[in-house]
Amino acid sequence: MIETTNITFSPERLAEVQTLLKRYPEGKQKSAILPILHLAQKDFGWISVEVMDYVAELLDIQHIEVYEVATFYTMFHLKPVGKNVLEVCRTGPCMLVGSDNIVKYLEQKLSIQDGETTPDGLFTIKTVECLGACGYGPMMQVGEKYHEFLSEERIDQLLEGFRQNATQP
Ligand code: FES
User: Fold this and answer.
1) Which atom of ligand 1 is nearest to the CA of 99?
2) What is the pLDDT of residues 147-162, one digit of tens each?
3) A GO molecular-function term, please (predicted)?
4) Is residue 94 in contact with ligand 1, taking CB distance under 6 Å?
């Protein structure tokens, strides 16, 4: 039974959840936790405790089981984020080619620190673990797009592009 009332998927989303659950054998519904958390983040913007509790109720598993997964993977946002989440890979291969400098440059350009959001809500800087583009570092993911071989010049271009997109109707 769903105990949480403030957070609810739409009927269409619930149908999608049911389809996901059918992929797994009876009693193994916990295996659908990652795709369902992705849907939750898409719909609710970030993964609050309330969202985690809702997902646990949907899957009929312990709340702690959802907390463990949602807090382990850096792809889940555990607090509200800006319109553009600049997810910079901080794992070894990217670090060897200067990802820490990219993070510092972003922090300086946006006057925020890793994990923070600009006051206009346009950007969040978030360092994350390997995104599987290790040969193309330093790299970052923004939305569904990868940006690779980053340099200060490339960051300037990207930020300008994101700002322009934000002003378009
Ligand atoms: S180490 Fe950065 S993408 Fe793998």
Assistant:
1) 2
2) 999 999 999 999 999 9
3) 2 iron, 2 sulfur cluster binding
4) yes
Do 19 and 93 fall within a single domain? no
> What CATH number is associated with residue 139?
3.40.30.10
- Prediction pTM value: 0.87
Ligand 1 pocket test, pick from 74, 126, 139, 150 with the greatest ligand atom count within 8 Å of Cβ, gives: 139
Cβ neighbors of 106 (< 8 A, separation 6 or more) are 86, 88, 125, 155
**Same domain assignment for residues 104 and 150:** yes
Q: Are residues 54 and 89 in the same domain?
A: no
The CATH number given to whatever domain includes residue 41 is 1.10.10
